[in-house]
């Protein structure tokens, strides 16, 4: 008799990662699905679907079914999960897998039920829900079991999960809406107001990744950006530097700072004092924004550092938590 495979699932706003126990990471794809409006069939998922964003003809839609850490479109989320789980299971797809899945602390009961329902509809076995912040801390190899303050800021696409942890428990936390996606939106809005150029989501993300910076630079990186002129309607290109887009980036980071400070204010002083030596761990895709660790260190007066392999901390933590 075949044993049930166990999957660790990080179904994030921007990316989905799946670990199959004993096999490591078996799926790492953008959380995007493309659908034919004519027959409601899935045309593409992951990277292939992401490349369609903003370029679809009228009979095709490409969407991200998760927003701000929660399911915004149940039908698309189910179709995407179905494809991702099929890919992760391979020849084992006929066997019901047990699943451990991360959830942000802001997830309400309705969103939680939608996620569970989507997994049940696929035909899973047991479903275990696990706090995203705790999973990230475990995946970052923080000593969460000790009676000391351990702080994680998991910077995802939709939310930042901020938590101070001690003795295997979350002492103080916030689920801050507005991270990677908010940076993309802030950059695109800046181009519209400052340069009268419309740029799409993928262009905004490329700008953030290639020249985005949390600090002012003496020798800033530059790139040429093309977009649609809001007045003429024609394509127009301009050269911009990392310093040019510092303002829209800081607008987002300053709001993040407020949430981090609130967690520090809520926490016992004894645990906060531990952070002077231990520092604050940064994980998630948005932690890769250049100099974000230095910006937060200067702003909080507490050392902040980017963990090893920040993109896979949550899913690795889920997998490790099975053995805890």
TrEMBL record:
Keywords for this protein: ATP-binding, Cell shape, Cytoplasm, Nucleotide-binding
Gene3D superfamilies noted in UniProt: 3.30.420.40
Keyword hit for Nucleotide-binding: yes
InterPro entries from the xrefs?
ATPase_NBD, MreB, MreB_MamK-like
For the keyword Nucleotide-binding, the answer is yes
Q: Please classify the protein's predominant subcellular localization into one broad category.
A: cytoplasm
- CDD domains assigned: ASKHA_NBD_MreB-like (cd10225)
Q: Which residues bind ATP?
A: 13-15, 157-159, 205-208
The record's GO CC annotations read: cytoplasm
Which BP terms does GO give this entry?
A: cell morphogenesis; regulation of cell shape
- Provide the protein's localization: Cytoplasm
Q: Which domain of life is it from?
A: Bacteria
Q: Give one Pfam hit by family name.
A: MreB_Mbl
One example GO MF annotation: ATP binding
Q: How does it assemble?
A: Forms polymers.
Function of the protein: Forms membrane-associated dynamic filaments that are essential for cell shape determination. Acts by regulating cell wall synthesis and cell elongation, and thus cell shape. A feedback loop between cell geometry and MreB localization may maintain elongated cell shape by targeting cell wall growth to regions of negative cell wall curvature.
Q: What is this protein called?
A: Cell shape-determining protein MreB
Provenance organism: Candidatus Dojkabacteria bacterium
The gene for this chain is mreB
